[in-house]
Structure to design on (811 residues):
């Protein structure tokens, strides 16, 4: 291979202002377009997000028709969402008669291939987790994705004990995943054979979600029980 | 009339060792292992071995024809690939998946590189690695050895329709009423429950596992015969086993209740079969005498490291594939000194 | 490599085709779709081609987003081409491309959050997709508006076509479905490896094998018919 170098007449000098004008002009066009796109799509995206959350919440809490969003603050207090308070969102869901069906809470545990984020349905009546739905995971198809489908595994999450201890600030018994076939207590999760690490992620997510949200939920149960 | 003196350089006498002769001998050495597998697991394994061998030979024939290389089936290498592949699969592995493995092994592992002699990795293991990633559940579904009706009926999953999920075997196994069957191989029991299967069982092979990997004793006998016939380089299996045993030893001495003993490491899983029949693949291993020892030790060490610290139960397959991959590099590092040359200086150019 | 040298902005004489203004013909469109297909012929855009083609819908979303950015940035570059001095052209192109990528990023979120989550960072990574900067530098900066739009559309659809041919095969083998519609019985055994990253390499390799085999066969036929050795590519 040879590199061709050709002699060329010296190019005409480009004036400085032409370069500045062009870059400035393009930056302005760019700014305009980005701002317009952002402003136009903002309400649409917010609406999509609302519908998606609602669908997920109603999926883990079947029978619910309305929901209210709350934030669990750093101090463990419960605040209505949408006022710029940082914290973990939880969703109280109500049935057609306005009774509290349960509270959707979410947590994350690290699995075989990165974090597994799960939404749980917490029933304040029985102090337990009654359903789950994996929101985000990269677990190996065929093994790790059984977390949402394996009927035997899902039985673990039909009445997973999340009772508080006497101080009311933490779970009486942390939720843990145990080896397949060795579940003895209601706060244990029986792992799926061959997907122990993914099952363990589920346990960690449940524990994290419950440890953060359940104390606040139980404390504010009276105000949560009234829809609006 | 003057006497004619014929002058030749050595060697003066040589035996005609051809590729197909070597390959035929290896097939012969594999037959007792295959026969033991059939006796142990029944008709399913017979069908499995026939399928993998048939699919491997058919694939070889097709690619040889398509690329105009003449008939390469006659060199018996595809038969070895098929047999070895079949022996590394679980006894109840669906036949269609086995055929996929054989096709991928020959097509991607061998034909793509230009056929026998050019393949970088062992074709049988390439095929197995593919189905391990494609069908992770089927390849870890084990069935018990010495099921009562094994010569009269097939393991249900064997005859799964192509592209369909394997027929579940849990009910069938429960119906067998096998005492002490836990659904796990000795390797899995050691890893997850720290229960070491007695050495007498792993050595003689009266246990669950892949079709042809169970009897360390039989593999050892067949391998030694092959080495005695000079059809494989004894340094490779010896250094693989040495590497594995020496890596396992310190951990076992630290905590025998947690880590497997060196002899368990040697006799369990596919290590014995892999060391004698797969790591010793003539094409995919390094060519220098020092090189094969480094190569063998690398495979042995890596196998144990994967077994003890990896997510997988058995690591010998990936260890050999990685060993194959660095094989050419090892050959390059361990070039013997050219006679008469001085270390550090380039040999004289011709 | 013949295609690549056609496109390069080398200053050798006689001036290559694309240093002149090209009239709008059917070829302007077809070229990018087939002869100069960005993935299968020019081997550009490999990163999204391997990473987001594990399902048909992801492949389609990625392909159409890239097409959108290609057309918009190409049009703007072509329209401003006499106004952009040579010295600041790369900076200008990058800003223009980044603008439209940001726009498409918001658009996809507004259309479907699931698709947005599936495509992940690869939407933002369109900024550094060499197909787009390559088109801007080699074509849009020298051609009139209409041929640029048509050519960008062709290239974009060629890219989409390539992603789709990977995505459909991977989804079909990996899940037994296309666009999420199950085609076989529920008992279908998915080939997990096809959804995982290695599957992308296998399927891309298989397609390249197929296209090269076809090309070689065509050339051999041409040679047999005309007795002239066809231009080796």
């Amino acid at each position: 291979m040879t590199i061709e170098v050709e002699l060329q007449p010296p190019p005409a000098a480009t004036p400085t202002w032409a370069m500045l004008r062009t870059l400035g002009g393009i930056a302005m066009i760019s700014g305009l377009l980005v701002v317009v796109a952002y402003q136009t799509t903002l309400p649409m995206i917010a609406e999509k997000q609302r519908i998606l959350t609602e669908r997920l919440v109603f999926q883990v809490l079947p029978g619910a028709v309305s929901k209210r969003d709350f934030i669990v603050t750093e101090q463990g207090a419960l605040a209505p969402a949408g006022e710029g308070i940082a914290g973990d969102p939880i969703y109280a869901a109500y049935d057609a008669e306005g009774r509290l069906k349960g509270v959707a809470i979410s947590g994350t545990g690290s699995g075989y291939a990165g974090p597994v984020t799960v939404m749980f349905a917490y029933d304040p009546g029985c102090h337990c987790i009654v359903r789950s739905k994996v929101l985000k995971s990269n677990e190996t198809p065929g093994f790790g994705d059984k977390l949402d489908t394996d009927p035997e595994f899902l039985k673990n999450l039909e009445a997973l004990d999340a009772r508080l201890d006497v101080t009311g600030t933490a779970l009486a018994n942390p939720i843990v995943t145990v080896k397949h076939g060795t579940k003895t207590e209601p706060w244990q999760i029986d792992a799926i054979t061959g997907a122990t690490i993914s099952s363990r992620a589920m346990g960690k997510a449940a524990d994290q979600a419950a440890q953060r949200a359940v104390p606040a939920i139980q404390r504010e149960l009276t105000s949560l029980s009234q829809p609006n | 009339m003057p006497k004619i003196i014929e002058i030749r350089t050595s060697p003066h006498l040589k035996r005609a060792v051809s590729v197909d002769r070597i390959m035929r001998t290896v097939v012969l050495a594999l037959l007792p292992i295959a026969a033991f597998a059939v006796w142990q697991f029944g008709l399913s394994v017979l069908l499995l071995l026939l399928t993998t061998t048939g699919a491997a030979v058919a694939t070889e024939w097709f690619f040889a024809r398509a690329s105009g290389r003449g008939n390469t089936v006659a060199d018996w290498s595809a038969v070895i690939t098929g047999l070895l592949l079949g022996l590394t699969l679980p006894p109840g592995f669906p036949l269609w998946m086995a055929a996929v493995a054989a096709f991928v092994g020959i097509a991607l592992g061998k034909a793509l590189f230009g056929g026998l002699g050019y393949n970088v990795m062992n074709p049988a293991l390439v095929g197995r690695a593919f189905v391990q990633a494609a069908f992770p559940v089927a390849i870890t579904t084990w069935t018990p050895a010495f099921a009562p009706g094994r010569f009269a009926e097939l393991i249900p999953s064997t005859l799964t329709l192509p592209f369909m999920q394997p027929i579940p075997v849990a009910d069938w196994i429960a119906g067998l009423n096998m005492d002490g069957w836990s659904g796990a191989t000795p390797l899995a029991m050691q890893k997850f429950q720290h229960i070491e299967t007695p050495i007498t069982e792993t050595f003689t092979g009266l246990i669950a596992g892949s079709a042809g990997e169970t009897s360390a004793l039989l593999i050892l006998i067949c391998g030694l015969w092959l080495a005695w016939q000079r059809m494989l380089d004894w340094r490779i299996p010896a250094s693989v086993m040495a590497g594995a045993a020496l890596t396992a030893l310190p951990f076992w001495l630290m905590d025998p209740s947690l880590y497997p003993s060196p002899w368990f490491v040697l006799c369990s899983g596919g290590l014995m079969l892999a060391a004698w029949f797969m790591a010793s693949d003539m094409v995919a291993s390094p060519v220098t005498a020092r090189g094969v020892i480094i190569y063998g030790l690398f495979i042995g060490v890596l196998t144990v490291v994967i077994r003890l610290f990896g997510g997988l139960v058995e690591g010998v397959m990936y260890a050999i594939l990685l060993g194959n991959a660095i094989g050419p590099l090892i050959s390059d590092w361990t070039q013997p000194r050219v006679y008469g040359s001085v270390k550090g200086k380039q040999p004289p150019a011709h | 490599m013949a295609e690549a040298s056609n496109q390069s902005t080398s200053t050798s004489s006689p001036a290559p085709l694309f240093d002149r203004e090209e009239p709008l013909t059917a070829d302007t469109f077809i070229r990018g779709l087939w002869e100069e297909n960005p993935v299968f012929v020019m081997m550009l855009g490999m990163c999204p081609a391997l990473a987001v083609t594990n399902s048909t819908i992801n492949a389609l979303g990625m392909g159409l987003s890239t097409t959108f950015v290609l057309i918009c940035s190409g049009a703007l570059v072509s329209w401003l081409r006499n106004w952009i001095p040579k010295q600041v052209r790369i900076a200008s192109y990058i800003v223009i491309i980044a603008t439209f990528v940001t726009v498409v990023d918001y658009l996809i979120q507004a259309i479907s959050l699931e698709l947005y989550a599936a495509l992940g960072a690869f939407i933002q990574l369109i900024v550094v997709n060499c197909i787009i900067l390559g088109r801007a530098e080699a074509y849009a900066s020298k051609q009139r508006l209409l041929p640029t739009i048509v050519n960008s559309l062709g290239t974009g659809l060629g890219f989409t076509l390539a992603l789709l041919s990977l995505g459909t095969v991977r989804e079909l083998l990996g899940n037994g479905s296309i666009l999420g519609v199950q085609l076989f019985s529920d008992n279908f055994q998915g080939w997990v490896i096809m959804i995982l990253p290695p599957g992308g390499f296998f399927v891309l390799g298989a397609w390249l094998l197929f296209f090269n085999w076809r090309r070689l066969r065509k050339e051999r036929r041409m040679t047999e018919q005309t007795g002239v050795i066809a231009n080796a590519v």
In short: The mean pLDDT of chain B is 85.
